[in-house]
């Protein structure tokens, strides 16, 4: 009797061990699938949408190029005076100090080269005959009504480089959200249409990726250092600018489980 009981208990133990082993394998397989979406049969859809906004800031660069002799200190003083006058003028027009920053400063020598072609004598090295100092400030204007006056007024204050005028939207988050939501809606609709045509059901969303494209609007207004050699050209009339509109494109790719 004892042997029969022992044998019975042994058989029960074997059965329980087998059930436990099967449970572990089954759980591991299920868990593995849950953490590896790629193991599902899946399909992906891509859609894009645009949101259009009106730029609310203008950004441009104002610079002073000062050329002179070898007295760097005098050139620096002249250049600094012009930049200070330009900065004060821009502030008086209503641009906040936080929207004006130095974007570049450089000192470069100017050389005189000797023509020694066909001569038997040694050619002397180039000589420094003066220096050029360039200072640039980047400006961000939020009131488009004053941009034209600023662009023409800085020239009267000594600027001889005005470039890189562009229009942008300061806070693009709301437009990005609008474009993204529309793109996801289009992708969901496309997924449902594909599933219906192919005869399967759309399962869980396994992954989503997105990207944005936001072209910057540039204006053609530009002055360059040629004004240094032609100061009479600096008598400019107020500049007319138009910011137009700006598009933000959102592209989303959704990956779904096939059921």
Order of helices and strands: HEEHEEHEHEEE
Q: What percent of residues adopt helix (DSSP H or I)?
A: 25-40%
- Sketch the major β-sheet: 5 strands, antiparallel
Radius of gyration, CA atoms, in whole angstroms: 35 Å
Low-confidence stretches: 24-35, 224-234
Distance between the termini: 55 Å
CATH superfamily of the largest domain: Protein of unknown function (DUF541), domain 2
**CATH structural architecture of the largest domain:** 2-Layer Sandwich
Shape, please? elongated
Whole-number tally of structural domains: 2
**Which class do the helix and strand fractions yield?**
alpha+beta
Strand % is 25-35%
Return the CATH class of the largest domain: Alpha Beta
- Count of separate DSSP helical elements: 4
Give the neighbour order of strands across the main sheet: 3-4-2-5-7
Look up the CATH topology of the largest domain: Alpha-Beta Plaits
Let me know the number of strands: 8
For the residues shown, what is the average pLDDT?
Answer: 80
């Amino acid at each position: 009797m004892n042997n029969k009981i022992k044998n019975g208990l042994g058989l029960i133990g074997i059965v329980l061990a087998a059930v436990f082993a099967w449970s572990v394998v089954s759980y591991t397989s299920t868990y593995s699938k849950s953490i590896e979406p790629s193991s599902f049969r899946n399909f992906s859809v891509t859609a894009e949408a645009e949101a259009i906004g009106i730029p609310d800031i203008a950004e441009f660069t104002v610079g002073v190029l000062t050329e002179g002799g070898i007295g760097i200190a005098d050139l620096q003083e002249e250049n600094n005076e012009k930049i200070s006058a330009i900065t004060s003028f821009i502030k008086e027009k209503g641009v906040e100090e936080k929207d004006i920053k130095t974007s570049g400063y450089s000192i470069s020598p100017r050389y005189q080269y000797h023509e020694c072609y066909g001569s038997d004598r040694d050619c002397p090295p180039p000589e420094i005959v003066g220096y050029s100092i360039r200072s640039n400030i980047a400006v961000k204007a939020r009131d488009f009504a004053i941009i034209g006056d600023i662009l023409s007024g800085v020239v009267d204050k000594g600027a001889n480089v005005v470039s890189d005028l562009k229009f942008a939207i300061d806070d693009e988050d709301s437009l990005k959200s609008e474009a993204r939501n529309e793109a996801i809606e289009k992708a969901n609709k496309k997924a449902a249409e594909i599933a219906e045509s192919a005869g399967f059901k759309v399962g869980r969303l396994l992954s989503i990726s997105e990207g944005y494209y936001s072209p910057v609007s540039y204006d053609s207004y530009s002055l360059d250092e040629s004004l240094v050699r032609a100061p009479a050209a600096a008598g400019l009339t107020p500049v007319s600018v138009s910011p137009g509109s700006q598009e933000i494109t959102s592209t989303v790719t959704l990956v779904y489980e096939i059921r």
